[in-house]
Amino acid sequence: MYITLQKREKEHVTVFWEKTRDEEIQKLFPFTTNSLEKSLRLFDESVKEDALSYGKVIYYDNKYIGDIWCYCIDESNKKMAMLSIVIFEKELWGKGIATIAAKKFIEEVFNKYHIIKIGAFTYSNNYGSIGLLQNNNFVEVDTFIEDGIASKYYELKREGLINVACN
Question: Which of 10, 49, 85, 146 has the CB geometry, 3.0–4.6 Å to 68, for a possible disulfide?
């Protein structure tokens, strides 16, 4: 299993947008953009020097399969960021790819930014995301209902990093 994180380019945004229109993916992930144009504008914002988001694309055996990013990066006050990850190639779900990609990305984010924790939201029925977070030593902080959907909030503190086998 060969997993790499690569620089996110504008053409990735279009592929990601198209792949994540899938009904099953839409039910598992809370997407905030409702148009390709808005997604492209957000990408343009993310490459600016003072951007509050940072992301990479995930490649598995040289194939683009998803995105991972941090948003709401706050190095001044809360010293935290929020994590989001989507593997859009459903045949690769449950194989540990996202867990390994997240481990690599989290280490990079903690080295790149002056933050002490990373938060993540997931739907309570997204067992793959819950497993990924738990396997990367995130701790469940809260459960709640948002827009009628049962959800969970997790956090990882810098000292909570663990080693995940990168086979």
Answer: 85
Q: What's the CA gap between 105 and 112, in Å, rounded?
A: 10
Sign of the four-CA dihedral 154, 157, 159, 165? positive
Q: Does residue 146 fall inside a structural domain?
A: no
Name the residue range of residue 35's domain.
3-120
Quote the pTM value.
0.90
DSSP character string of 57-78:
EEEETTEEEEEEEEEEEESSSS
What is the domain count for the chain?
1
Residue 153 placed within a domain: no
Task: Specify if 156 maps to a domain.
Answer: no
Q: What's the average pLDDT block by block, 10 residues per block, for the chain (167 residues)?
A: 94 95 88 85 90 96 96 96 97 96 97 97 95 97 94 90 45
